[in-house]
Structures are given as C-alpha cells and as structure tokens.
Amino acid sequence: MRLATSADLPEVVALERECYSDPWPASAFAALPDNPRVFFAIARDAESGRLAGYVIAWFVLDEGELANLAVTPKARRHGVGSKLLERVLEDATARGTRDLYLEVRASNTAAQALYGRREFKEVGRRKSYYRSPTEDALILRRTLKP
C-alpha cells in the first residue's frame, strides 16, 4: 500500500469503471495525487503487482470526507478495503480531523458493515442521490478522537 501517483491513474480509472455503475470521469482523478488536502492511496496485489484497490478522502479544516473506496472483485473479502480504510483514518487523525463523513448506497450492506466495524454511524440520508440505478445514499459519520 502506498500513496497514489499520476502513473497509477489509468488503472484507478479502469477499476472505478469496473466497480461503479456511475463512475467518476478520468478527469476527476487528474489533480488528486498532488493535492495536499487529499489522501489518495492504492493497494497492489503482492504477487501480481496489479491494482487491488484505492481510496480517496479530502479534508477541509477539521472535517473530512471519504469520497471513494474501491476494491477489485477478486481482492474483496481479503482485508484490502479494511486496510485502505484504516490508512484513511490514520491520515485523518494525523491531520486533526474531528469528523469524517461518507455516503454509501442504501443497498450496499457489505460496505455498511465495513464502515460499521470502524464506528461509522448513520446521520442522514440523501434521497435518490445515486444514479444507475437511482437509490438513496446513507450519510455516515465517524467522530475521531484527538
């Protein structure tokens, strides 16, 4: 696991398209590796060297948002998502972040379980937030201890 660089972006964009029905455009990733307000890390498979997952979070003052976390289908249920999430939490704590937020599809129970194990709690709902298919987003928050 390491911080992402611009050289990783083609693989990240491909994984984004594989994992999400309404993926971010490639241009959305371009400025992220060099932005000091962004935590952007990747995980690679130790044997193949292929991208196994990535995570993106951004921070303003004492709040942060976990914007995206994706893991290849082959790497799921092997701890990759947990490790990426743990790195975000470590970075957020080091930055002095008080609250970390995220949105998750209401039907994505696997992701909800992952976040629940890390003490994220539901604090709201965005009606019809997601497209393809249209679905509510649950807003989750974790308050970090200083």
Write the layout of secondary structure elements.
Elements: E1 2-3, H1 9-19, E2 38-44, E3 51-60, E4 63-71, H2 80-94, E5 99-105, H3 109-117, E6 121-130, E7 135-143
Parallel strand pairs: 4-5
Antiparallel strand pairs: 1-2, 2-3, 3-4, 5-7, 6-7
Overall geometry comes to globular
CATH class membership: Alpha Beta
Would you report the number of β strands?
7
Helix percentage: 10-25%
* Physical arrangement of strands within the biggest beta sheet: 1-2-3-4-5-7-6
Characterise this structure.
There is one protein chain. The mean pLDDT is 95. The protein has 146 residues and is α+β, with helices and mostly antiparallel strands. Helices cover 24% and strands 37% of the residues. Strands 1-2-3-4-5-7-6 form a 7-stranded mixed β-sheet, with helices on both faces. The protein has one domain (2-143): 3-Layer(aba) Sandwich (Aminopeptidase).
What's the short story on this structure?
With 146 residues, this protein is α+β, with helices and mostly antiparallel strands. It has helices spanning 9-19, 80-94, 109-117; strands at residues 2-3, 38-44, 51-60, 63-71, 99-105, 121-130, 135-143.
